[in-house]
Amino acid sequence: MAKAKASKQKSRPVVAPVVLPPEKLAWQGALKLLQNRVFKIRSPRGHGTGFHIGNFGTDGRLCAIATAYHVVQMVHDWGEPVKLAHAETGKEILLKENDRAILTYVNKDLAVILFTLPPDLTLPKTPIELIPPGAYLVPGVDIAWCGFPAVKNDKLCFFHGFISCYLDQQSDYLIDGVAIHGVSGGPAFYVDIQSNSPKIAGVVTQYIANRTTGETLPGVSMITSIAPFEETIKNLNNLNQAKKEADEQKVSNPTSEQNQGEKSDKIE
After folding, report:
1. Would you tell me which of 8, 97, 101, 170 could form a disulfide with 246, CB atoms 3.0–4.6 Å apart?
2. Number of domains, the chain
């Protein structure tokens, strides 16, 4: 009786499962994470954009909104009212002169609006994530920004470009991308590879058109670091202290009339 041959099967090597790297957060996801911090800033003279950088003070209700100085320049100088419209919910906050403090950094075209957070507006409790101190983005890095352009000022719009260069002496950036009226003061952000989350690179402050030939041709936008007011805000205990700081700045800083025309390509 013939015996069946035993089949010889080679043992297969054990292969470790392949662990794929996490997918980079898409830009639409990054914008969604940030839009609950973005505000349209309206004044009797126009509008711009701003964004919530955190709640400070001893009770954690001193709300800070970063923007470009030229967006609130006349509001600050003339004590005009300003409205903040929340991008995600549409809720509006009317701030009269006594309801707020505005810290200004004229030479950097930066400002921060401070006020007591109303109970019916919920904003993130944690401060916004900023680029780490001492670090900067190199040319070629993807960057995005958002705001309320004048061509469609009721819609929060997304923009994308690349870092053209880092201006190390100012801690600012030139970016290959357009920024139009109404977007001034908006957040410029990138997706951090390690945390896979959006981080703030700075504030949209200026569009520098190419006028070499006498015509207005495409140029570059400027992103300004918000580092100048980080430490000041962290040390404020309440709105009254913020007002005192703002009053002291108003005395020491040049007035709007003295600064008109310094940056003819500002967007607002």
Report:
1. 101
2. 2
Predicted TM-score (pTM) of this structure: 0.85
- Structural domain that includes position 180: 142-224
The model's pLDDT over 35-89, given as tens digits with 9 standing for 90+, comes to 999 999 999 989 999 999 999 999 999 999 999 999 999 999 999 999 999 999 9
CATH number assigned to the domain comprising residue 165: 2.40.10.10
Q: 113 by DSSP, 3-state: which?
A: strand
Count of other CB atoms within 10 angstroms of residue 247: 10
Question: DSSP readout, 165-207?
Answer: EEETTTTEEEEES---TT-TT-EEEEEETTTTEEEEEEEEEEE
Burial of 143 (0-12, 13-18, 19+ CB in 10 A): buried
Residues 155 and 198 in one domain: yes
Give yes or no: residues 241 and 192 share one domain: no
Question: How far is 208 from 187, CA to CA, in rounded Å?
Answer: 18
